[in-house]
Amino acid sequence: MKIAIVSGKDEGPTKLNAFDNALSDAGIGDVNLIKVSSMLAGNAEIVDLPTLKAGSMVNCVLSEVTSDVKGEEITAVIALAIGEELGCVVETTGRNKNHDDLVEEAKFMVNYMMEKRGVEIRALIVESSTATVDNIASVIASVVYVEE
Asked: N or C: which end of the chain has fewer CB within 10 A?
């Protein structure tokens, strides 16, 4: 299994446009995203995001938050743990929350999921995106399942 880890942020004239712009900033704005739960095959391989065919259906785990509260700091975090047998992905978001606390929350959740399954973690990766809202902003972080 191959996966890519991406993040993006942007503003827009509406919440939908801000979200769409953040997806484009991450390189996944021209595809149809299918949100899936949080499991990876064992020893998943992390690759650079390939060029995705416009309009294609792409599985992903997506963390996203959009806000129109001027001055609010928004953060999207995704954490993944990869083991030999399987891997897990978690997402969390925050509004005016400490970035490091959100990262620690995501690490705790993914560690717990792996521990509960009795799987040793071989790699733990965290990706995040943070923005301070000027008008209407959106941030995303995602694990994208890349076709093999």
From this structure: C
Residue (of 56, 80, 70, 71) closest to 7 by Cα position = 80
H/E run at residue 20: helix 15-26
Q: pLDDT by residue (tens digit) across 61-95? A: 999 999 999 999 999 999 999 999 999 999 999 99
Measured between alpha carbons, how far is 35 from 31 in angstroms, rounded to an integer? 12
By annotation, the residues acting in catalysis are: 32, 37-38, 91
Closest to 143 (Cα-Cα) out of 6, 2, 1, 25: 6
Name the region of 27 (left: φ>0; alpha: ψ -120 to 50; beta: rest).
left
Domain that holds residue 64: 2-146
pLDDT at position 148: 62
Which residues are registered as beta bridge partners of 66?
138
Identify the CATH number of the domain in which residue 27 sits.
3.50.20.10
What's the structural domain count of the chain?
1
